[in-house]
Design a protein that fits this description.
- There is one protein chain.
- With about 110 residues, the protein is mainly alpha-helical.
- The chain contains three helices and no strands.
- The chain is about 90% helix and about 0% strand.
- Helix 1 crosses helix 2 and helix 2 runs antiparallel to helix 3.
Length: about 110
């Protein structure tokens, strides 16, 4: 958020979040919550992607049971795909909330 809003904008966002009984305060809180969830989803997505890559590496180098490797790869890739889609959805929502917040700032 700091890189998007700049230092002054980020400080203003923190100040607006404290104004809990105003529309701008509620919007600032929503923006912070949405960004926090995007960060959480990004971390989860990266963890699943790393796991999928590990399963693929194991399958390519392992002499074990091919069926077990294929099952692990399928599960990991599906989980990664689902988390990537959820992360993309959250980033889109973050973009919408950021636009609404910036519009509200211009109107204030």
């Amino acid at each position: 958020m700091r890189s998007t809003l700049g230092d002054d904008g980020y400080i203003a966002l923190r100040r607006h979040r404290q104004a809990t009984h105003t529309a701008l305060g509620t919007l600032a809180q929503l923006l912070s919550d949405t960004a926090r969830e995007a960060d959480r989803l990004h971390t989860t997505f990266c963890r699943y992607a790393t796991s999928a890559r590990g399963h693929l590496d194991d399958a390519l180098t392992d002499q074990g049971l091919p069926h077990a490797d294929a099952t692990a790869i399928l599960y990991s890739s599906r989980a990664t795909e689902l988390h990537a889609a959820r992360y993309a959805q959250q980033m889109h929502q973050l973009d919408l909330v950021l636009d609404a917040y910036q519009t509200a700032l211009l109107a204030a």
